[in-house]
Amino acid sequence: MSHRPIFVVQLHDARRLHYDVRLEVDGVLKSWAVPRGPSLDPVVKRLAVFTTDHDLEYASYEGVHADSKYGSGAVIVWDAGVYTNLTPGSAAEAIEHGHLKVRLHGVKLVGAWAFTRTGADWLLVKVRDEDADPSRDLTVTEPRSVLSGLTIEEMAASGG
């Protein structure tokens, strides 16, 4: 059986609340900060800022950072699962070329999304497929961690 790479979406209340979308690629988590979170609407283009790679162990991290190398503030695992690279070649090559299309198999996020580099930044867009649903906003209706069941506010209040 072949290895299925993981993905994780962590909600992080740092300087600004944002979603960190992370994909396992070549033994690390390639990461994009998505200020407004993933959308299920294919016409919505979400800014995705490519950030530093994270260690794979970070995929299950929840807590409150106090001035860590990954930024301070509360963190929850908003969604997690495995993904399939839909782009020809490897995911690393696709990122290098500025366009990666993946199918997520998560608790909340299911279906295909595309990451496209536009100059210095990237866009995250839901692909038109059977899982697209413009009427649903999971960032509003599904605020809890898939690991602890806590909201970002509850995690911050707990002190991690």
UniProtKB/TrEMBL annotation:
InterPro entries: LigD_PE_domain. Residues 10-117 form the DNA ligase D 3'-phosphoesterase domain. PANTHER family: DNA LIGASE D 3'-PHOSPHOESTERASE DOMAIN-CONTAINING PROTEIN (PTHR39465:SF1), DNA LIGASE D, 3'-PHOSPHOESTERASE DOMAIN (PTHR39465). This is 3'-phosphoesterase.
